[in-house]
Amino acid sequence: MTVPVPGMPDLSYLVPASNENRWSDLLATLITIDPEPLQRLLGLDFDTIEREAIPPGPVRKADRLDVLLRAGGAAAAAIEV
To answer: By three-state DSSP, how is residue 61 classified?
Structure first.
């Protein structure tokens, strides 16, 4: 059961709940539009957002990071959806 939050749009019409990649895309887009809330929450000033980033070393397709935030070219935070 979905409980509406007053003042918040219902995103289930935009992104199906079962589609992780679409949610990751939406999250990366929202971070790109306004990074300040996440920068404040994490306490870091990232400058790059990558989707489906491949970590170094031997990895499988399933090992990709959903969202990777970089600061000065270095990995600063990873978000798994």
So the answer is: helix
User: Would you list the DSSP string of 1-46?
Assistant: -----TT---GGGTS-TT-HHHHHHHHHHHHHH--HHHHHHHT---
Q: In what order do the strands lie in the sheet with 74-79?
A: 48-53, 65-71, 74-79
Q: What does the block give as tokens for 29?
A: 């887009």
pTM above 0.85, yes or no: no
Read off the pLDDT of residues 17-49 as tens digits, 9 standing for 90 and up: 788 888 899 999 999 999 999 999 999 999 999
- CA–CA distances in Å: residue 5 to residues 9, 53, 55, 60: 8, 32, 36, 38
* 43-62 CB burial, b ≥16 within 10 A, e <16: eeebeebbeebeeeeeeeee
